[in-house]
Amino acid sequence: MRQYDLVERVRSYNPDTNEDLLNRAYVYAMKAHGSQTRASGDPYFTHPLEVAAILTDLKLDDATIVAALLHDTIEDTEATRAEIDRLFGPEIGALVEGLTKLKRLELVSREAKQAENLRKLLLAIADDVRVLLVKLADRLHNMRTLEFVPEASRRRIAEETLDIYAPLAGRMGMQEMREELEDLSFRTLDPQAYDVVMQRLDALAERNRNLIGEIESQLARKFRDHGLTARVFGRRKRPFSIWTKMERKSIGFEQLSDIFGFRVIMPDLESCYRALGIVHTTWPVVPGRFKDYISTPKQNDYRSIHTTVIGPGKQRVELQIRTEEMDQIAELGIAAHAFYKDDIGSPTELLKRESNAFAWLRHTIGILSESANPEEFLEHTKLELFHDQVFCFTPKGKLIALPRHANVIDFAYAVHTDVGNSAVGCKINGKFAALSSELQNGDEVEVLTSDAQSAPPSAWETLAVTGKARAAIRRATRTAVRDQYAGLGRRIVERLFERTKLDYADDKLKGALPRLARASIEDVMAAVGRGEIKASDVARAMYPDYKEERIVRYGSKKTAAAAAKAAAAPTAEPARGAFAIPISGLNSGLPVKFAPNGGAVPGDRIVGIVTPGEGITIYPIQSPALKDFEEEPERWLDVRWDVDETTPQRFPARIRVENVNEPGSLAQVATVIAEHDGNIDNISMSRRSPDFTELTIDLEVYDLKHLSAIINQLRAKTIVARVDRVNG
Ligand code: MN
């Protein structure tokens, strides 16, 4: 901008401007700054000139424009207050000195100091509100050219702007100023979030391009039909304000009303209310959105009527209805008054009388000059900053903010616990992806759910990043395990009642709950499932003269040979109504393990034994260890293998081999096993006599057939005297 451009701009709104004063200030500042340069490499003088230009947009008076041109001269050049007083008068001298004081405040981000500096800032502007206006314009230009400043100070300046200057501009009713400061800070502090919002905003604006013009003309036509001349225009909302709204309410923006507001500018106050009547009788009103800030202005002097209707095109349309003057004050706030100064340049009676913002400022300054604790005020103006987050969207456009490194599991739980619990897959930006995929800024995530999945895999707990997801997963798995135990307990109880020919009914058990000291039937069943109480306790609670049975049904009364025969029999068919435990997958939620000494392999007839608090242990029916459970038949479960010949899984078995004690005999045994595809898990050796060695070998085999084949091959070796399967 050149000298005459500046003068032209001022003259356009102030025909009485003192051109000579402006020209002298221009030349003085340019000479004073001389060859100084800015971080960008531009001549330093471009800065005060741009600050002055910003203030011409606010239509400010000559003294303010001149103060803007001179604002850095006392601090940065040879200029003095006395010289400025002499050349431009004491009014301008005082303004420049006020700005010099502010410049000397080293604003740093440490809170206490920031609060103290804010106090000084406000005290410095106490005498003349125009100091604040120049200061804000100064900060705005510095923010616009922030890219040239080193990274470290860039952040600090942006934080300070968002913490102090933008809220202050808002408090002064300077909406435009506040919004631009916020957006520039937002872009600096969180460029990724800024980009995401902008992309979304652009896409939605493009999609609704025709609609906006359509709504504008329909509204204008409607007012014209009623003899009202209105200026109607759509205005795109600002990224930072959208962002904070999305954050605060945790909502997305998908509707036109989320990104566009419509202004209706009426010639006078009365027609504002007429326009409101026309709008409300033409389109359905969205309840709860009507606000009359004309009759009750906001604290920053803002006056307007707000309403939202389901307008043309069935779109939600947000309307702000106000007069031209109200619109000016809504945009410029206190600056709208500042031009109307009295002869000595102090705030006018109008400003003193009518401006809430000015009253607030004086009130605040009053508090600050009295109190030693400005932190409280700072707390109010401080805005939350958003660091280290990723921002994703649901297919409907709802924003989900997550910590960095979060994955789709976290996303699903952030949407809803039910979505998390039933998540089985996902699409990121339309492509199938793993649930553990780390999310990037701007990802659109569609979570695929299945009703069949009532609880998440417990392994998710370690995959999830957010505390919310982890807690929900823990809760869901705990519930699922409890349900499993309850189901198990019910089976145990039913078996006991079947066998003893007693009648079982939930109602009858309900009556017996106090005797069992449990709150519900489910609690009783889960306790039985966990082994905390016995099924016989349940029977006794329901039938006090019930005698505990001592019937032995499995194992020990049979001879070992008979048991082995039964085990080898191909008819390993489960009993009718057997309780299916998919031991191959171990995904029942209840811990399942094999008998510790000897294991079990498919082909074995097996039983499960419920162990209090532990789960189910699978024993082959011939296992002598089962003797220990004979007196608790309710702990016995018929289980079956959920595997077939194609299952590649191996199962544990133990064999005992007696072989001739000669060099290389152990190697021969190991070779036979290896040749027949058996895995040796462990070998322990003991010498029973000088001639024979006994080996106890833990194997992993596919099934009983596989195990038998290995045993037979070993028996065929001349060095082997005897081979037996061992069951613990
Ligand atoms: Mn400056």
In brief:
The chain has 728 residues and is an alpha+beta fold. Helices cover 49% and strands 15% of the residues. The radius of gyration is 41 Å and the shape is elongated.
Q: Which architecture of the largest domain per CATH?
A: Orthogonal Bundle
CATH topology of the largest domain: Hypothetical protein af1432
- β-strand percent reads 5-15%
- Give the proportion of residues in helices: 40-55%
Count of β-strands: 18
CATH superfamily (homologous) name of the largest domain:
Hypothetical protein af1432
Bound molecules: manganese (II) ion
Indicate the CATH class of the largest domain.
Mainly Alpha
Question: How many domains is the backbone divided into?
Answer: 6
Specify the overall morphology.
elongated
Calculate the terminal CA-CA distance, rounded to whole Å.
Answer: 95 Å
- Tally of DSSP helical segments: 31
Q: Based on helices, strands and strand pairing, what is the structural class?
A: alpha+beta
Name the strands of the widest sheet in spatial order.
1-2-5-4-3
Q: Overall pLDDT, averaged?
A: 80
Q: List segments where confidence is low: pLDDT < 50 over at least 5 consecutive residues.
A: 106-111, 341-346, 376-388, 550-582, 584-588
Largest sheet: 5 strands, mixed
Radius of gyration: 41 Å
